[in-house]
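lol forgot to send this yesterday, sorry. C-alpha coordinates for the thing we talked abt
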Protein backbone atom coordinates (compact mmCIF):
# COMPACT_ATOMS: atom_id res chain seq x y z
CA UNK A 1 0.00 0.00 0.00
CA UNK A 2 2.83 2.41 0.92
CA UNK A 3 4.53 1.84 -2.42
CA UNK A 4 1.34 2.65 -4.32
CA UNK A 5 0.88 5.88 -2.34
CA UNK A 6 4.53 6.88 -2.92
CA UNK A 7 4.18 6.03 -6.61
CA UNK A 8 1.00 8.13 -6.83
CA UNK A 9 2.69 11.08 -5.09
CA UNK A 10 5.69 10.76 -7.42
CA UNK A 11 3.43 10.83 -10.48
CA UNK A 12 1.53 13.80 -9.03
CA UNK A 13 4.77 15.73 -8.44
CA UNK A 14 6.02 14.87 -11.94
CA UNK A 15 2.76 16.18 -13.41
CA UNK A 16 3.11 19.43 -11.41
CA UNK A 17 6.67 19.85 -12.68
CA UNK A 18 5.58 19.22 -16.28
CA UNK A 19 2.83 21.84 -15.94
CA UNK A 20 5.28 24.28 -14.39
CA UNK A 21 7.78 23.83 -17.20
CA UNK A 22 5.16 23.99 -19.95
CA UNK A 23 2.94 26.73 -18.61
CA UNK A 24 4.70 28.26 -15.68
CA UNK A 25 3.90 31.45 -13.88
CA UNK A 26 1.31 33.27 -16.00
CA UNK A 27 3.15 36.58 -16.42
CA UNK A 28 6.06 36.12 -18.80
CA UNK A 29 6.99 39.81 -18.78
CA UNK A 30 9.75 40.96 -16.48
CA UNK A 31 8.35 43.94 -14.61
CA UNK A 32 11.06 46.42 -13.70
CA UNK A 33 10.58 49.49 -11.59
CA UNK A 34 11.35 52.75 -13.27
CA UNK A 35 14.69 54.14 -12.10
CA UNK A 36 13.14 56.89 -9.99
CA UNK A 37 11.29 54.26 -7.90
CA UNK A 38 14.46 52.37 -6.95
CA UNK A 39 15.05 53.05 -3.26
CA UNK A 40 18.38 53.19 -1.48
CA UNK A 41 16.60 52.82 1.84
CA UNK A 42 12.97 52.73 2.83
CA UNK A 43 10.85 51.92 5.85
CA UNK A 44 8.01 49.42 5.56
CA UNK A 45 4.94 49.11 7.72
CA UNK A 46 4.94 46.10 10.05
CA UNK A 47 2.66 43.93 7.90
CA UNK A 48 4.75 44.56 4.77
CA UNK A 49 7.95 43.84 6.74
CA UNK A 50 6.54 40.50 7.88
CA UNK A 51 5.24 39.56 4.43
CA UNK A 52 8.44 40.56 2.65
CA UNK A 53 10.56 38.70 5.21
CA UNK A 54 8.46 35.56 4.77
CA UNK A 55 8.63 35.67 0.96
CA UNK A 56 12.38 36.36 1.00
CA UNK A 57 12.89 33.48 3.41
CA UNK A 58 11.02 31.16 1.01
CA UNK A 59 13.04 32.42 -1.94
CA UNK A 60 16.36 31.99 -0.14
CA UNK A 61 15.37 28.45 0.85
CA UNK A 62 14.74 27.66 -2.82
CA UNK A 63 18.16 29.11 -3.68
CA UNK A 64 19.95 26.96 -1.10
CA UNK A 65 18.69 23.76 -2.77
CA UNK A 66 20.13 22.19 -5.91
CA UNK A 67 18.62 23.27 -9.24
CA UNK A 68 15.84 20.70 -9.63
CA UNK A 69 12.56 20.99 -11.45
CA UNK A 70 10.73 20.93 -8.11
CA UNK A 71 12.13 24.39 -7.40
CA UNK A 72 10.02 25.71 -10.28
CA UNK A 73 6.88 24.76 -8.37
CA UNK A 74 8.12 26.63 -5.29
CA UNK A 75 8.99 29.67 -7.41
CA UNK A 76 5.55 29.58 -9.05
CA UNK A 77 3.98 29.76 -5.59
CA UNK A 78 6.16 32.72 -4.63
CA UNK A 79 5.31 34.51 -7.87
CA UNK A 80 1.60 33.92 -7.41
CA UNK A 81 1.87 35.45 -3.92
CA UNK A 82 3.57 38.51 -5.46
CA UNK A 83 1.03 38.82 -8.27
CA UNK A 84 -1.36 40.74 -6.01
CA UNK A 85 1.03 43.71 -5.90
CA UNK A 86 -0.51 46.44 -8.01
CA UNK A 87 1.69 48.07 -10.60
CA UNK A 88 1.08 50.68 -13.27
CA UNK A 89 2.72 50.22 -16.63
CA UNK A 90 4.30 53.31 -18.11
CA UNK A 91 3.47 54.24 -21.68
CA UNK A 92 6.62 56.20 -22.37
CA UNK A 93 9.93 55.74 -20.65
CA UNK A 94 12.58 58.34 -20.17
CA UNK A 95 15.83 57.22 -18.61
CA UNK A 96 17.42 60.66 -18.80
CA UNK A 97 20.11 59.16 -21.02
CA UNK A 98 21.15 59.67 -24.61
CA UNK A 99 18.74 56.92 -25.70
CA UNK A 100 15.59 57.77 -27.58
CA UNK A 101 12.24 56.51 -26.27
CA UNK A 102 11.86 54.18 -29.27
CA UNK A 103 15.24 52.57 -28.50
CA UNK A 104 14.17 51.82 -24.95
CA UNK A 105 10.83 50.50 -26.17
CA UNK A 106 12.56 48.20 -28.69
CA UNK A 107 14.88 46.86 -25.97
CA UNK A 108 11.96 46.25 -23.63
CA UNK A 109 9.95 44.42 -26.30
CA UNK A 110 12.90 42.24 -27.26
CA UNK A 111 13.60 41.21 -23.66
CA UNK A 112 9.92 41.07 -22.58
CA UNK A 113 10.39 43.89 -20.08
CA UNK A 114 7.59 46.12 -18.84
CA UNK A 115 8.54 49.29 -16.95
CA UNK A 116 6.23 49.86 -14.01
CA UNK A 117 5.57 52.09 -11.05
CA UNK A 118 4.50 50.47 -7.81
CA UNK A 119 3.07 51.56 -4.49
CA UNK A 120 5.10 48.70 -2.96
CA UNK A 121 8.49 48.83 -4.67
CA UNK A 122 10.09 46.27 -2.34
CA UNK A 123 7.67 43.59 -3.48
CA UNK A 124 8.02 44.62 -7.13
CA UNK A 125 11.82 44.41 -6.91
CA UNK A 126 11.59 40.96 -5.32
CA UNK A 127 9.11 39.85 -7.97
CA UNK A 128 11.58 40.87 -10.69
CA UNK A 129 14.39 38.92 -9.03
CA UNK A 130 12.24 35.82 -8.50
CA UNK A 131 10.92 36.02 -12.09
CA UNK A 132 14.48 36.21 -13.37
CA UNK A 133 15.57 33.21 -11.31
CA UNK A 134 12.51 31.31 -12.55
CA UNK A 135 13.51 32.04 -16.16
CA UNK A 136 17.10 31.06 -15.33
CA UNK A 137 15.94 27.70 -13.95
CA UNK A 138 13.85 27.04 -17.05
CA UNK A 139 16.89 27.78 -19.20
CA UNK A 140 19.07 25.53 -17.05
CA UNK A 141 16.64 22.62 -17.34
CA UNK A 142 16.56 23.00 -21.11
CA UNK A 143 20.39 23.09 -21.29
CA UNK A 144 21.71 20.88 -18.50
CA UNK A 145 25.16 20.76 -20.08
CA UNK A 146 25.89 24.23 -18.65
CA UNK A 147 28.95 24.58 -16.40
CA UNK A 148 27.89 23.79 -12.82
CA UNK A 149 30.40 26.30 -11.42
CA UNK A 150 28.84 29.07 -13.50
CA UNK A 151 25.37 27.98 -12.39
CA UNK A 152 26.45 28.24 -8.75
CA UNK A 153 27.93 31.69 -9.34
CA UNK A 154 24.64 32.81 -10.85
CA UNK A 155 22.74 31.49 -7.82
CA UNK A 156 25.12 33.40 -5.54
CA UNK A 157 24.20 36.54 -7.47
CA UNK A 158 20.51 35.96 -6.76
CA UNK A 159 21.33 35.42 -3.08
CA UNK A 160 23.26 38.71 -3.08
CA UNK A 161 20.25 40.51 -4.57
CA UNK A 162 18.00 39.05 -1.87
CA UNK A 163 20.42 40.23 0.82
CA UNK A 164 20.49 43.68 -0.77
CA UNK A 165 16.71 43.85 -0.34
CA UNK A 166 17.17 42.85 3.31
CA UNK A 167 19.62 45.74 3.82
CA UNK A 168 17.68 48.38 1.85
CA UNK A 169 14.44 47.64 3.69
CA UNK A 170 16.12 47.00 7.05
CA UNK A 171 14.54 43.58 7.43
CA UNK A 172 15.29 41.35 10.40
CA UNK A 173 18.22 39.33 9.15
CA UNK A 174 18.03 36.69 11.89
CA UNK A 175 14.65 35.55 10.50
CA UNK A 176 15.94 35.31 6.97
CA UNK A 177 18.23 32.55 5.77
CA UNK A 178 21.86 33.67 5.93
CA UNK A 179 24.11 32.38 3.16
CA UNK A 180 27.77 31.84 3.90
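and heres what i got for the seq, position by position
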Amino acid sequence: MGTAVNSFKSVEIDEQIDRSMEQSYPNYLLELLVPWDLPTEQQLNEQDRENLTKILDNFLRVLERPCHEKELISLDKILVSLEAIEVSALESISTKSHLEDWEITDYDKYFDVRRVESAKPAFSILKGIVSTYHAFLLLYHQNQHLDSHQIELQKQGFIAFAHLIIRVYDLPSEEVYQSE
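The CA atoms of residues 70 and 116 lie 30 Å apart. anyway ping me if u want another try
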